[in-house]
Amino acid sequence: MNYMNLLIKGSKETILNLLSGNLDDDTKKACFKSAVEIINLETSYYCNRKCDYCPVSESNRQIDQIFMEIKLLKKIATELAEIRYENRISLNGYNEPLLDKRLEHKIEILRKNLPWVTLSLNSNGDSLRRDRLISLSNAGLNYICVTLHPQPFKSDTPSTLKRRIKKIIEKNVSITHSDFDINDGYIDFQTGGLRLKVQWPNWRILGTDRAGTIKNYGKEKLVRELPCIKPFREFTIFFDGTVQPCCESFYDKNTKSSKIANLNNTTIFDAYTSRNLSKFRQSIFGFGKKTGICKYCNAIDYSSKKADKKEREILLRQAEKYQND
């Protein structure tokens, strides 16, 4: 059973609330706690890579470094503690998180306020070493996923990829591990007190157009007709407190489409249940041609048109009635 079916089975009221908005404070918090499985929390701005399948390649994120203010991070942690948030926080967006020398301090703040969460991050692994891995673990990080990106507009040969995998293992794992198959796509370990996953997907095939910011990403552009769970299941916060509809919605100082709110001026719960985000959810909840930043997005969704279409149409009509009451 997919996420949306589980959520609907658990509480159709939650779905209706998230589609309609206009909620009291307790209901806002209850909706967030029951629906959000992952918070994408970007604590810095800069990335040292220039991948051709990522909008950072044409962004000033290649030049500037900006850090999330500690005051804002503490505000986020305090608000999440109010509902005893227990799911996952991923400490990255379109940045390279390990280039933040105060990352451990930020992890400690989150861990102190949220002892129940899983704290993770995605990294390109360029600056990861075993001593850093241990210090991140000691600060309270649970999981690192390292993606081995190829050079721009090039592909790694099998021998090059195998050599790169062995190198990242030797730098970070205290055991020799040569028995792996590159066709598996990833390997993982328990090391230094946390889980380390190393993966090498082909994002030129598997990636998305990042809300339309990648114009020529090598795929036939098909207008999306599937629904999408991301604005329900995820909550995405960028370096300056800006909330976007999902992790696919690229944001930098020059790209500010689909901004939902800014957490310097509102609470997490107000932003998540805001009219802006509720209207966005309505636009992607049903089956049918999508528009705007979702038009050509191919993010995976496991909804079944045959099984789900009618129920989604009913819920959308009910949400519209909620708004009008």
Uncertain regions spanning at least 5 consecutive residues? none
Assembly state here? single chain
Q: In what range is the share of β-strand residues?
A: 5-15%
Ends distance: 33 Å
Overall pLDDT: 91
Q: Mind summarizing the main beta sheet? A: 9 strands, mixed
Can you count the helices? Answer: 12
The arrangement of helices and strands along the chain is HHHEHEHEHEHEEHHEEEHHH
Beta strand count: 9
Shape: globular
Supply the helix-strand structural class: alpha/beta
Rg, Cα atoms, Å: 20 Å
Helix content: 25-40%
Query: Taking strands numbered 1, 2, ... along the chain, how are they ordered across the largest sheet?
Result: 5-6-4-3-2-1-7-8-9
SSE inventory with pairings:
Elements: H1 3-10, H2 12-20, H3 25-35, E1 38-41, H4 70-82, E2 88-90, H5 103-113, E3 118-123, H6 130-139, E4 143-147, H7 158-172, E5 186-191, E6 194-199, H8 203-206, H9 230-233, E7 234-237, E8 242-244, E9 261-262, H10 268-272, H11 275-285, H12 305-324
Parallel strand pairs: 1-2, 1-7, 2-3, 3-4, 4-6
Antiparallel strand pairs: 5-6, 7-8, 8-9
How would you portray this structure in words?
- The mean pLDDT is 91.
- With 325 residues, the chain is an alpha/beta fold.
- It has 12 helices and 9 strands.
- 37% of the residues lie in helices and 12% in strands.
- The chain has a 9-stranded mixed β-sheet.
- Strand 5 and strand 6 (194-199) form a beta hairpin.
- Helix 2 (12-20) crosses helix 11 (275-285) and helix 2 packs across helix 12.
- The relative contact order is 0.16.
